[in-house]
Amino acid sequence: MRMTSRKKEILSYYEPDSLEWVIGEIGAPPFDVSGIAYLIHGMESFGKRHQLESTRRTLETMVAGGLLEKLTVYEQRQNTTQSSAGAPGVWCNVTRYGLPGKCRIYRHTGDTGGRPPIEGEAIRLDAPA
């Protein structure tokens, strides 16, 4: 895998020096595709599907190369087809990307509040080949 300038930029968002700013912009890691695309391209990424897809492909390449870890979570998102910002939104599976060994498992209770990680032991399972 080639280490491109885009991959270096994405990894820089996880560094402690820039993490405080990144958390203020898009929230705490692990990050989703739209958040990373926003950091790279700015507000214009919301209207351009090709920028989201390009960012997703880069993140998937980084996962395959072992630079990032992929996590799928069930969370509430804003429904862009609803007319009101106060609308309840929709629940969907969201893929998030974090540094290897830094993604935590959270108990799902239907509440997106800042819950602590589940207590206990965990082991890493490799995907079947």
Keywords:
globular, Arc Repressor Mutant, subunit A, 3-stranded antiparallel sheet, 4 helices, 34% helix, alpha+beta, 129 residues, 16% strand
Low-confidence stretches: none
CATH hierarchy class name: Mainly Alpha
Fill in the CATH topology. Answer: Arc Repressor Mutant, subunit A
Major beta sheet, specifics?
A: 3 strands, antiparallel
Regarding quaternary structure, what we see is single chain
The number of helical segments is 4
H-E order: HHEHHEE
Number of distinct beta strands? 3
Q: Which bin fits the share of residues in helices? A: 25-40%
Whole-number mean pLDDT: 80
Task: Output the structural class.
Answer: alpha+beta
> How are the strands of the largest sheet arranged?
1-3-2
The shape is globular
Structure overview:
- The chain is built from four helices and three strands, in the order ααβααββ.
- The protein starts with a helix and ends in a 31-residue tail after the last strand.
- Helices cover 34% and strands 16% of the residues.
- The model has no long low-confidence stretch (mean pLDDT 80).
- It has one domain: Arc Repressor Mutant, subunit A, CATH 1.10.10.
- The chain has a three-stranded antiparallel beta sheet.
- With 129 residues, the chain is an alpha+beta fold.
What layout of secondary structure does this protein have?
Blueprint: H1 5-12, H2 16-26, E1 31-32, H3 33-41, H4 49-64, E2 69-77, E3 90-98
Antiparallel strand pairs: 1-3, 2-3
Helix pairs in contact: 3-4
